[in-house]
Design a protein that fits this description.
Elements lengths: L3 E2 L5 H4 L5 E5 H8 L7 E7 L5 E5 L6 E5 L2 E4 L4 H9 L2 H4 L1 E6 L3 E6 L4 E8 L4 E8 L4 H14 L2
Antiparallel strand pairs: 1-3, 2-3, 3-4, 4-5, 5-6, 7-8, 8-9, 9-10
Length: 152
């Protein structure tokens, strides 16, 4: 999903996703002097670990951007997500590994950053994403202060 007009309903208004919040285009536009973004909002999901990901797609087929060419459905099973990620491994040099019945680790071989993706098998959805290694503490503080100001 891209920047959406604030005055128009979007699917997530009626069926919210846990951790969903929106960047406020009025605030972002004022800070970055971008008039075109005023009156818009941008959907993101923050997981319990603090990792935030972009949300896009149509209602019922929402996906989150992990990194590079890899997007995963918000509503999925570990097996389906594994197959989707595995299909990109040779072309994009990703590594995918299963852990038990509810977790995957996807590693970008170029950056050596990994995302541990935890699924709620009962709800058939991604319940948490943990970045390894964790972002630097100073960057977290910067992101939190900006997020608090730029979100609605």
């Amino acid at each position: 999903m891209s920047w959406e007009r604030k005055d128009r309903p979007i699917p997530y208004d009626q069926q919210p996703i846990s951790g969903l919040y929106f960047l406020d285009g009025d605030r972002v536009g004022a800070v970055y002097r971008q008039e075109w973004i005023r009156g818009h909002k941008y959907p993101l999901i923050q997981y319990p670990s603090g990792v935030e990901r972009q949300l896009h797609g149509e209602e019922g087929n929402e996906v989150i951007h992990i990194f590079g060419a890899l997007d995963l459905p918000v509503r999925s099973t570990p097996d389906a997500a594994y197959e989707r990620a595995q299909a990109l491994t040779s072309e994009y040099d990703y590594r995918v590994k299963r852990h038990g019945e509810s977790q995957l680790t996807i590693t970008n071989s170029q950056s050596e950053r990994s995302y541990h993706i935890v699924f709620d098998n009962q709800d058939r959805s991604i319940s948490n994403i943990v970045l390894d290694p964790p972002p630097h503490e100073a960057m977290n503080q910067f992101q939190n202060s900006n997020r608090n100001y730029l979100t609605s």
